[in-house]
Amino acid sequence: MKSTILIASLAAFLLSIVLGPVILPILRRIKAGQTVRDDGPQTHLKKNGTPVMGAFIYLISVATVMAFCVKDYPEILPIFLLTIAFGVIGFIDDFLKVVLKRADGLRVWQKLVLQLIAAGAFCFYMTKSDSWSFDAFVPFMEESTVNFGVLAIPVTIFIIVGTVNGSNFTDGVDGLETTVTSAIMTFFLVTAIGLKSEVAVLPAIFLGALLGFLMFNVNKAMVFMGDTGSLALGALVAGLAIKLHLQLYLPIFALIYFVEVLSVIIQVTYFKLTHGKRIFRMTPIHHHFELGGWTEAKVVAVFATVTAVLCAVSLLFIPTIAF
Fold first, then answer.
1. What is the pLDDT of residues 80-104, one digit of tens each?
2. What pTM did the predictor assign?
3. At what angle do helices 176-194 and 226-243 cross, to 10 degrees?
4. Rounded distance, CA 62 to CA 208, Å?
5. Which residues pair with 136 in a beta bridge?
6. How confident is the prediction for the chain on average, in pLDDT?
7. What domain count does the chain have?
């Protein structure tokens, strides 16, 4: 299996590198360019017109490699389908905004309803499959698990939708979402191997594809992944966590996702309660640090380092892991 993991990851990496120069001209041709907010960091204004929906680079790479792996590792298919379902929601939003020039894209309630439907369908599949369970390891408590009982489905839907939107808010600085999620994929890869789970091949494929995509997405980015990518990656992280029973570890190893989305919730709530006052300079919180003088490179380095450290901490306390 380890040789398969290595080959699959390398193949996805090389495919992303090859697909970049193919997909970028297509995105430019359909004028799928980013429109940057005027009230954000002034350094972002130069990004106007940068192609969006670059997630197709790594999603096509992953799908191609998966076509050769899914027969031997069928357990990766439901997680990939969940990933694609949320990627489609993100694509619709991106297409409306950047191609059809509808500034708001999908309305908030429309996006939420679609996300709830996708997460609900995944939970329905879980209830019908003998190889899936809603049980979750309890962080830092050896050999301890929890079953959410009658709340299992609503809790799982909440976890999926929350993780997806945390991932979405993280995508706002060149290479940030790609780098943070690559660290999380490394964590899942090591964990799945330690737990002897066949899904290890999926984070390996995505890790390779994301590192290849990073060649085009690192500062100064030639392309952005858009909601197509950030929603897909959030669903991927949630799906892998659920499969490996690590739902309760998500706030630890994916802390950046949760800090990003919480910063927005706190800012909006405080703004409304105080009639215009703010806690942060700007949200999501990576913009707060940018407006405080941090470069994009520093934001990416710090957030990725925090993620890597928290992934390592989580890894040390996952029960039943055996290398």
1. 999 999 999 999 999 998 888 887 7
2. 0.94
3. 20
4. 9
5. 146
6. 92
7. 1
Question: pLDDT tens-digit profile of 120-170?
Answer: 999 999 999 988 999 999 998 877 889 899 999 999 999 999 999 999 999
Q: Is 212 helix (H, G, I), strand (E, B) or coil?
A: helix
pLDDT tens-digit series, residues 35-85: 655 555 655 556 677 899 999 999 999 999 999 999 999 999 999 999 999
Q: Please, what is the angle between helix 176-194 and helix 201-217, to 10°?
A: 160
Euclidean distance between CA atoms 184 and 90, whole angstroms: 21
- Asked if residue 75 is part of any domain, the answer here is yes
What pLDDT sits at residue 322?
A: 47
Give the pair of three-digit tokens for residue 322.
Answer: 């055996």
Whether residue 321 is contained in a domain is answered as no
**Whether 209 contacts 14, CB under 8 Å:** no
Locate 10 and state its tokens: 């390398």
Tokens of 319: 């029960």
* Residue 143 falls inside a structural domain: yes
Total residue count of the chain as it appears in this document: 323
| Gyration radius of the chain's alpha carbons | 19
Can you tell me the mean pLDDT for 19-38? 81
> Of 172, 239, 166, whose CA–CA distance to 203 is shortest?
239
The whole-angstrom separation of Cα 25 and Cα 72 is: 35
Q: Is 220 helix (H, G, I), strand (E, B) or coil?
A: coil
More confident residue, 33 or 68: 68
Domain residues for the domain of 78 are 2-316
Residue 161: inside a domain: yes
> Residue 148, SS3?
coil
Query: Three-state DSSP class for 278?
Result: coil
3-state helix, strand, coil in the chain (%, to 5): 70, 0, 30
pLDDT above 80 (res 308): yes
Burial 284-302 (b: 16+ CB within 10 A, else e): bbbbbbbeeebebeebbee
What pLDDT is attached to residue 219?
82
CA 44 to chain centroid: 22
Q: Which residues contact 229 (CB under 8 A, 6 or more apart)?
A: 53, 54, 55, 58, 59, 87, 90, 171, 177
